[in-house]
Write a structure and sequence with these properties.
Elements: E1 3-7, H1 12-23, E2 27-31, H2 40-48, E3 52-55, H3 69-90, E4 94-99, H4 107-125, E5 130-135, E6 137-139, H5 157-167, E7 171-174, E8 180-181, E9 183-185, H6 186-195, E10 204-207, E11 213-214, H7 215-225, E12 232-235, E13 246-247, H8 262-276
Parallel strand pairs: 1-2, 1-3, 3-4, 4-5, 5-10, 6-9, 7-12, 8-13
Antiparallel strand pairs: 8-11
Helix pairs in contact: 1-6, 2-3, 3-4, 5-7, 5-8
Length: 277
């Protein structure tokens, strides 16, 4: 196995997956945001010239998690089906990215869970060579900040908290902060994704630590690590996200636990904010 197609290759996880493929002696073939997994023929031709495919393309949850149902379903379900069909036709192995928010009543979680179940069903009924990797709360250098600090429309917990701590702004927690999450470093997740190409197929693999950390504790850890005077304030939670959610791997790969490489991550955001100033 040499040439591996990576959809979403220019995303946060995608860039690290490409790096890990290269370190493993493989050649990543990039399929970026400028490409379109909903273009069925383009996907078919591109996958046919590859030895394997990792599908990371997705519409992530925006600040307003509802309102983009059609676009979210088009990419997260139909786009994934296009990749699945192309991989089956070419008889090449596939890894599908998923998340840990299964069961939540919002478009992102619903569409990702639908794709997960479809992949596992096809592995069972078609013996398709496909595995699903559930990436939990991934963090690390290079994850885009959301407005007003960066261009991302999908606010992520670690970039948001670090940017606010470094600039002395209040850290905003949606809800009470009692939500339990599983923070996992991007390099570890990328290694799990690459390794999944070579595992027995039909598996759902948890790229997580299995260690629960409350959102409030994450905020306090970041404030301390940044030596910040930021305060914690609580704002309304997002629709479709349970106020006391627990999103933690139940069968974890036992990756490096939070706050693994937090200092390096903070340094990256410090420099990114300085460059943008």
């Amino acid at each position: 196995m040499k040439n591996i197609l990576v959809t979403g290759s220019d995303g946060f996880i995608g860039r690290e997956v490409c790096r890990q493929l290269t370190l493993s002696g493989m050649i990543p073939r990039c399929f970026t945001r400028n490409d379109d997994v909903c273009d069925r023929e383009k996907v078919r031709v591109t996958v046919a010239n590859s030895d394997g495919v990792i599908n990371l393309a997705a519409i992530l949850p925006q600040a307003n998690i509802f309102g983009l149902e059609y676009k979210t379903a088009s990419v997260n379900i139909i786009g994934a089906i296009n990749v699945l069909d192309a991989a089956l036709e070419a008889d090449v192995p596939m890894v599908q990215i998923a998340n840990g928010n299964e069961g939540q009543k919002n478009p992102y979680a619903i569409t990702k869970q639908a794709t997960t179940e479809l992949c596992l069903a096809r592995a069972h009924h078609y013996q398709q060579k496909v595995n699903v990797v559930r990436a939990f709360h991934v963090y690390g250098p290079g994850q885009e900040m959301s407005r007003p600090y960066g261009p991302s429309n999908a606010p992520k917990i670690i970039p948001c908290f670090i940017a606010r701590a470094l600039t002395g702004e209040d850290i905003q927690i949606m809800g009470k902060g009692s939500q339990l999450i599983d923070l996992v470093y991007v390099e570890d997740v990328a290694r799990v994704v690459v390794n999944a190409l070579f595992m027995p197929y039909g598996r759902k693999i948890d790229a997580g630590t299995g260690l629960a950390t409350s959102v409030s504790f994450v905020a306090k850890t970041i404030i301390d690590a940044c030596n910040s005077a930021s305060k914690i304030v609580h704002i309304a939670g997002r629709m479709g996200e349970p106020p006391d959610a627990t999103v933690v791997a139940t069968q974890p790969e036992w990756l490096n636990p939070w706050p693994y490489k937090l200092t390096e991550t903070i340094d990256w955001y410090r420099h990114a904010l300085a460059r943008a100033a």
